[in-house]
Amino acid sequence: MGHFIAAGTAVVFGVLLLFGFRFDAEGPFMFNVVGAASGAVLASTVSIQVLGFYGMWRNYGSLAAAAAFAFGLIASSLFAFASLLAPLAVSQRCDWGWCFTVIESWG
User: Fold this and answer.
1) Nearest-CA neighbor of 33 among 18, 14, 53, 16?
2) Do 78 and 35 contact (CB within 8 A), yes or no?
C-alpha cells in the first residue's frame, strides 16, 4: 500500500516541479511554500512506505527488508530536512548579464 501512495505523491511532486513550483529566490513566495509542502508530503509518504519494510523485517526476518528500512529511514529524513530548508537557502546571483538561482551553501 505504501508503495502506491509514495508513487502517486512522487508523480504530483514531479508535476509541480515541472510547472514551476520550485525553490526560486526571486519567484513568488507561494511557489516556495507549495514546493516545501509537497516535499514534506512526499517525505511522509515515503516514511509510510518504509514502515512496510519494517513490517517485513519484523514478521519475516528478511535482511533485505532490514536494509531497505535503514536506508529508507535515513533517506526520507534527509529528504524532508532538505525540502523544508531549501526555500531559506536559495539566492539569485547575476554575472555578465546572466542570472542564476544558487544554493548558498554551494558558494
Assistant:
1) 16
2) no
pLDDT at 52 over 80: yes
3-class DSSP state of 23? coil
d(CA 84, CA 92): 19
Q: How far apart are CA 50 and CA 68, in angstroms?
A: 7
**Identity of residue 83:** S
Cβ neighbours for 87, distance < 8 A, ≥ 6 positions apart: 23, 32, 33, 35, 36
Mean pLDDT lowest for which of 2-6, 9-13, 25-29, 78-82? 25-29
Output the CA–CA distances (angstroms, integers) from residue 100 to 15, 21, 52, 94, in the order listed: 22, 16, 41, 6
- Cα separation of 51 and 8, whole Å? 17
Q: Report DSSP state, residue 87.
A: G
To which residue does cell 516545501 refer? 36
Rounded Cα gap, residues 49 and 11, in angstroms: 15
